[in-house]
Design brief:
The chain is mostly helical. The protein is built from 8 helices and no strands. The protein has helices at residues 2-6, 10-24, 26-29, 36-56, 59-80, 88-106, 111-169, 178-208. α2 crosses α4. The radius of gyration is 27 Å and the shape is elongated. The two termini are 53 Å apart. The mean pLDDT is 85.
C-alpha cells in the first residue's frame, strides 16, 4: 500500500519537499519567518496525517481533519507574519513539489498508486482553497473590527483637541504670538489630517458592512 511504502521514509520525503520548496520560493523564507526545520516538521506532520487516514480507509475523517489542520496552520501563519502570509499559489506549489518527491520515492513500478495519490491530492487542495478563503476572510474581518474600534476611540478626543487648538489660535484664551500662531497652525493641520484618515477608515468599514 501507499502508506506501507512511504511510512519509513516520511522524514526523508518531508526534508526533500521542504528543501525544494525553499529553493522555489526563497522570497518567503528569506526573512527567517519559518526555518527549514520548522517547515520539514509541518510537512512531515501533514504527510503522516494523510498516510495514517488513508491506511485506515477513512477518507471522510481525512477531509475533516485535513481541513481543520490547514486552517490552524493558516491562522498561526497570519498571527506570526501578517505582512507576508502564505499564499494560495504557494500552497499549490508546495503540493506539486510534494507529489514530485513522492513519485520519485514510489518509483515507476507503483504508477497506479501514484495516480490514486494524485487524485487524493487534488481533493485535498480543494479543501485547502476552502480553508484559505474562510481563514483569510475571518482574519480580515477581525482586523477591520479592531481598526474600527480604535478609530471610534480616537476620533472623539482628537476632535476635541482640534477644536481647542483652533480656539487657542483665535486668541480665545489669551494673546498668541506669531511664533505660537505658526506652531498652532501646524498642529491644527496635522490633527485635521489624522481626523480625515480616521473618517476614511470608518467609511471603509461602513462600505464593508454594506
Amino acid at each position: 500500500t501507499l502508506a506501507g511504502i512511504l511510512n519509513n521514509v516520511q522524514h526523508a520525503v518531508a526534508e526533500e519537499w521542504s528543501r525544494r520548496l525553499i529553493e522555489v520560493q526563497p522570497e518567503y523564507f528569506a526573512h527567517g519567518v519559518v526555518s527549514t526545520q520548522q517547515l520539514s516538521e509541518v510537512n512531515e506532520a501533514f504527510l503522516a496525517l494523510v498516510l495514517s487516514q488513508v491506511e485506515r480507509g477513512d477518507l471522510v475523517g481525512l477531509y475533516r481533519v485535513y481541513y481543520e489542520s490547514t486552517r490552524q496552520l493558516l491562522e498561526a501563519d497570519l498571527q506570526r507574519a501578517p505582512s507576508r502570509p502564505i499564499s494560495l499559489v504557494g500552497m499549490h506549489t508546495s503540493a506539486c513539489i510534494s507529489l514530485n518527491v513522492i513519485q520519485e520515492y514510489l518509483g515507476p513500478e507503483n504508477g497506479r498508486l501514484m495516480v490514486a495519490y494524485t487524485k487524493l491530492s487534488i481533493q485535498l487542495m480543494m479543501l485547502v482553497g476552502q480553508a484559505y478563503t474562510v481563514t483569510r476572510e475571518a482574519y480580515l474581518q477581525r482586523t477591520f473590527e479592531q481598526i474600527n474600534t480604535v478609530s471610534h476611540e480616537l476620533r472623539t478626543p482628537l476632535a476635541h483637541l482640534f477644536s481647542y487648538l483652533k480656539l487657542l489660535r483665535a486668541g480665545e484664551f489669551g494673546r498668541v504670538s506669531p511664533a505660537q500662531e505658526r506652531v498652532l497652525g501646524e498642529l491644527i493641520h496635522e490633527a485635521d489630517e489624522i481626523l480625515l484618515l480616521l473618517t476614511g477608515t470608518l467609511d471603509l468599514s461602513r462600505l464593508d458592512t454594506g
